[in-house]
Specification:
The protein has 318 residues and is an alpha+beta fold. It has helices at 11-18, 24-36, 38-50, 65-89, 94-104, 125-189, 191-194; strands spanning 200-204, 211-215, 218-222, 230-231, 240-247, 250-255, 260-263, 270-272, 280-285, 291-295, 300-303, 311-312. The protein contains 7 helices and 12 strands. Helix 1 (11-18) crosses helix 4 and helix 2 packs across helix 3 (38-50). The longest helix has 65 residues, at 125-189. 17% of the residues are buried.
Amino acid sequence: MSDVTPDCLDAETLAAWMDDGLPPAALAAAHAHVAGCARCQALVATMVRLDPPAAAVTAPQPSRWRMTWLLPLAGAAAAITVWFAVAQRNPSTPAFEEQSKLAEAPAPATPVPPPAAAEPATKTLADEAPKRDTAALSKERRQNANAKNEFSARSREDKDAKKKAEAAAAPPVAAEANAAAARQEALRQTAPALDRLSQVIDVRSPDPAVRWRLVGGRLEKTIDGGANWSAQQLPVSAPLVAGVSPARNVCWLVGANGVVLLTTDGQIWRRLAFPELTGLSAVTAADAISATVRTADGREFVTKDAGITWIQRKLQDF
């Protein structure tokens, strides 16, 4: 049996229909619905079977017409209810089969959400390894950067130290260069005097028997007026160009590069310090302590303490 719908006929509508009391529009709607509703068709069929013959019906009494239809309607409703209950208990009925199918049909499976990935309780060494590697790499990079900065700082310090050392060494180099230039200038200025090396330079003492002579840069001495000559050892090998002997055993000699030699016993020679490495061309002396030396460019230096100090003579002193 079909289920009850809002359009199904109720008891009053059926009673009005059986009593020809439905309006035309309601009657047309009832006909249309009953044509497609099995439940209402059964009700109408029951009402027709229960309807008494027209001949036996007495004149209706206005006060009892509702009771006449209500009783058959009640009986029809009870019959339909009994039939529906029996159909529910009988598996062979279509209604029972439909309900069984609905009952047996499996309920739609409710989609179960996938379980959320559980957070591991503890982090394994493999999980920590990338972090450790990254930390180690960062540390190594920092160490390399620090080492590079330290190396650069040391390189700058080394360069600065080298520059300072070169600057400190520059004065001696400059002094040496100046000294070399001075020697060259002295040789140039003493060139005329050096020409006399090929000549014999005779240095006579107050004693005619004692003399010295310079022969080709070699110094010789005689104590017998020139009958015999003996060579003497000198502390330097610089060219000597002039000499003076103010006493028998005292002799001064001068030459290139500021060389000043002195002997006070006639045998041993020593070199005296001179303020310039310049060429010397002449010397005069009064004794073993006082002497005057002339440079190749015409200047004169005087000592009164055997060469410990020298004083350049001014022009007005000449």
